[in-house]
Amino acid sequence: MHIILVCLLFAAGCAPVVFDSRLNASQAIWDNQPPGVAAEVQDRLVLVPVRYYGFDGRLHQGQVVIHRDLAQDIRMVFAVIRATRFPVESVIPVAHPLIQEQGVYGLSPDTNNTSAYVWRFAVGENRLSMHALGLAIDINPRLNPYVRGDLALPPGATYDPAVAGTLTADHPVVLGFRRLGWKWGGHWGSRGRVDPMHFQKIPRSLAAWVAKWRE
Ligand SMILES: [Zn+2]
């Protein structure tokens, strides 16, 4: 009898959610941070639970650490990600032990995990990344690699728009971000690099705050 009931629940779309990350806010924002991290930035971060379909076709729940002023944008974009069944590998904060295992402070580039906040410099630059301020997110990095000349991050990753989970200029997920005022790294070819995993947004009210951290 119980087995029949469980089968009916699955058929009705009640398959249990797969939890990829279940940190509390303190663990996600304050644990496993590199030296030099700024409490003034961490104080502005929030932990946003998000749901998405994985490459296994099942509904997953993960978490995004993001600047509080972008939390609602993240919820809206993940609604598009779910509605279009754009598959996402995992969405796990870099402070999570699973990500720390791959590189201390979550700084390993060799991952396909989607994440937003990480305290680090911009690739190839001497100033903080937009990720360090909680104002950028990278989606499915291994399928949407950063490429500059011979450098690809994650190492060895290749870009093939025909593969599910890959972002293109006309993809509803890219259009969804752009409608909310986010910039997409896939448009940065004129700067000598492309970064299709990357989205960022500086709300007008934060322009001076961002300039202070990135001067
Ligand atoms: Zn990025």
Describe what this molecule looks like in 3D.
The protein has 215 residues and is of the alpha+beta class. The protein has a single domain (15-214), classed as Muramoyl-pentapeptide Carboxypeptidase, domain 2 (2-Layer Sandwich), CATH 3.30.1380. It contains seven helices and eight strands. Helix 4 (71-83) packs antiparallel against helix 6 (172-179). It is globular and about 45 Å long. The relative contact order is 0.13. The model has no long low-confidence stretch (mean pLDDT 93). Bound molecules: zinc ion. Zinc ion (ZN) is lined by residues 131, 136, 138, 198.
Q: How would the blueprint of this fold be written?
A:
Blueprint: H1 2-11, E1 18-19, H2 25-30, H3 39-42, E2 45-53, E3 59-67, H4 71-83, H5 97-100, E4 136-138, E5 146-148, E6 151-153, H6 172-179, E7 183-184, E8 198-200, H7 207-214
Helix pairs in contact: 4-6
The protein binds zinc ion (ZN).
Residues 131, 136, 138, 198 line the site of zinc ion.
